[in-house]
Amino acid sequence: MRKRTHKTVSAKLNNIMIKNSLASISDVAIYPVISLTIFVAFFVLLGYMVFRADKKYIKHMEEMPLTDEVYQKD
Amino acid sequence: MRLFTKPLLSSSSSDSSGALEGFYYDNKIVKAFIIVTVIFGVVGMLAGRTAALQLFWPAANLNLPYTTFGRLRPLHTNAIIFAFVGNGMFAGVYYSTQRLLKGPMLSPILSWIHFWGWQLIIVAAAVSLPLGITTGKEYAELEWPIDIAITLVWVVFAINFIGAIIKRRERHMYVALWFYIATIVTIAMLHIVNSLALPVTLFKSYTLFAGVQDALVQWWYGHNAVAFFLTTPILGLMYYFLPKAANRPVYSYKLSIIHFWSLIFLYIWAGPHHLLYTSLPDWAQSLGTVFSVMLLAPSWGGMLNGLLTLRGAWDRVRENPVLKFFVVAVTAYGMSTFEGPMLSLKNVNAISHYTDWTIAHVHIGGLGWNGFMTFGMFYYLVPKMWRTNLYSVKLANVHFWLGTLGIVFYALPLYWAGFTQSLMWKEFTKDGFLAYPNFLETVTQILPMYMARAFGGTLYLAGTLVMVYNLMKTAGTGEFLAHEYDEAPALNHKLKVGGAFHTMLERKPILFTVLAFVAVLIGGVVEFVPTWLIDSNIPTIASVKPYTPLELEGRDIYVREGCYNCHSQMIRPFRSETERYGEYSKSGEFVYDHPFQWGSKRTGPDLHRQGGKYPDSWHYNHMLEPTSMSPGSIMPAYPWLFDDELNTTNTATKISTMRTLGVPYEEGYEDQAVADLNEQAEGISKNLADAKIKVGKEKEIIALIAYLQRMGTDIKNEATALK
């Protein structure tokens, strides 16, 4: 009997807690849509940029740390 | 997407038509950062080892407040993160940036302001943390004047770095520089937002955020401090020093583009995985989990890019100590970035959270990734800058094995301890009772593992000392080259260069910085906006009231002593936890908590429902001599709380500061606060007198007892009201 009371109290408290927290934001449904759009757009753009990159340029950049002592004089 | 019509110049020619210019690289600043890295590394590791000793031998705190675990652990974490890894990172950044840009930093004066400013901050931390001057937020413990100093020094670093990029002779920015840029802008953002606080005195402030919001901001910061202080700059160093040491270009530059953008974009969302099953809204927890799992892809992309750089050069790893350290570092990075997403799954987190599993995970990253990258870099840099050979490759190998075995001996016992303790917490008897109702049983069980961990840490420290000797001897045999001469053609800004969008980005530092900032901003905004839009900290619970002045002072003592380092205040909604501790924690219970004190590790039990569980006399005896109430306890004694008198000179200011932050103390209550404080203290003192304990009401212990007895009790009144 005591446990049941405890449960009811818990349920009521939960109700106070969770209800209306997100729903209280107007047009909350737009957030996940915006998030997903940004997310997909980001990776599509990134993939496109990498796909389009110039090979000679990439080779030049790759070797940059190895060539930074070319002019070095003792 | 060709933005300009002219094609790129060939890889062999310099893409500039300017006249050849001579200039000097500043090696002195690199040397200075190396020296302090080594010094603070040893200090930080010693602090860690002492803290580790205290976990099975509490007397190792020398019975002093300054060296007690709750104050020593923040000193250890701050020293390792900001002094050891931070200074090491600056050494590498200053060395590689100058060479990648073909020119010195913007100004040597700014370099030295950065250097000395950062060291002063470290000294201020080393003094203030043992004194108990702390904000009580993990890895952001430093108080507001030091926070401002950090901001200023960081801005100096940023100006020096961005200025150097603008003055550069190399048209395009190599990938390492992108990681440095992301580090600079993101750390600035994280540090400023998480440090927002209202000062009470010069040494005390209350964070702007409360409860759930504070938790979200703190772990957004905490998680991304790992990302943008311990990961991105080190990845930048990896992209520079690993190809140099292996003498071959990075495996795939294209992969590094994907690695960079996806890593910085995804990392920032994952903070809430530190708050699974807590009172944080469920959607935020799920977001944290989803992004943590996705984070595996860029992390492993980066790791593979590092390891595959060694393709065809693995034979050299056998002989070259620099490569040995790098290989283990990158492997450790791979292991911990695999483990991280796994720990973010709610079912795994239910077992791992609050246990030593987390500590083991962190140290694979800290000792393996950060430590070994730094060591490898130093074994490369010191002979190079002192124009000599490494004094002893043999000793470097000894260091390598001491360090590697140190990591193994450190981490494995803690994994074991984590599993063991968590399973013991969750075990029920056939009759449905907790199998180990006494928390202490689950602690004494894992003490041998704590001893093994301290042994592992000692091995690692010994290895570091071997390195110190080796590097000093190396420097002794060589001659330091303070200013290294180089030549490069000046950059012709009028020359139009073609290339795809990202190629263009790589020569537009300001645009690049802005876009990187946008990428890291998005995740934070998506998490914060809904949390902040939720009507002021709801869901509220009517019976949750602000702390009384005495409880508030007691809470400040709780924060000062760093109790949160070993005790959580967050009961998760598991039967094993509600059976042990009581009703699970609700977000509405923390609305007046500036700062939140949920903690992240249970070396001792959760304290959220501690209030009213034991009489005042129990707490009195327990704080004076923990083993008198809990035989075998590893909690330190706090004798100074019984000698020192509570300082109430700032109580009124504390009340009015809290009211400014939104805690509903009535206007003018601050004038009555001390009188109320004395009255409540009198009551506790009388309670203790009834238990034949004579203690003055003005002692600090009285305030702490008041706070401990209040914790988590408000909701019981709510339950009564609902009945």
Keywords:
heterodimer; A: 74 residues; mainly alpha; 3 helices; 65% helix; elongated; disordered C terminus; B: 723 residues; Cytochrome C Oxidase, Chain A; Cytochrome Bc1 Complex, Chain D, domain 2; 2 domains; two-stranded antiparallel ribbon; two-stranded antiparallel sheet; 27 helices; globular
Account of the 3D structure:
The complex is a heterodimer of chains A (74) and B (723). Chain A is mainly α and 74 residues long. Chain A has one domain (2-66). Helix content of chain A is 65%, strand content 0%. The longest helix of chain A has 23 residues, at 30-52. The termini of chain A are far apart. Chain B is mainly α and 723 residues long. Helix content of chain B is 63%, strand content 3%. Chain B is built from 27 helices and four strands. In chain B, helix 1 (28-54) packs parallel to helix 3 (108-128), helix 3 (108-128) runs antiparallel to helix 4 and helix 8 (253-267) packs antiparallel against helix 9. The longest helix of chain B has 34 residues, at 393-426. Chain B starts with 19 loop residues before the first strand and ends with a helix.
Low-pLDDT segments, ≥5 res of chain A? 1-5, 13-19, 70-74
Distance between the termini of chain A: 89 Å
Mean pLDDT of chain B: 91
- Give start-end ranges of low-pLDDT stretches of chain B: 1-14
Largest interface: A-B, 46 and 65 residues
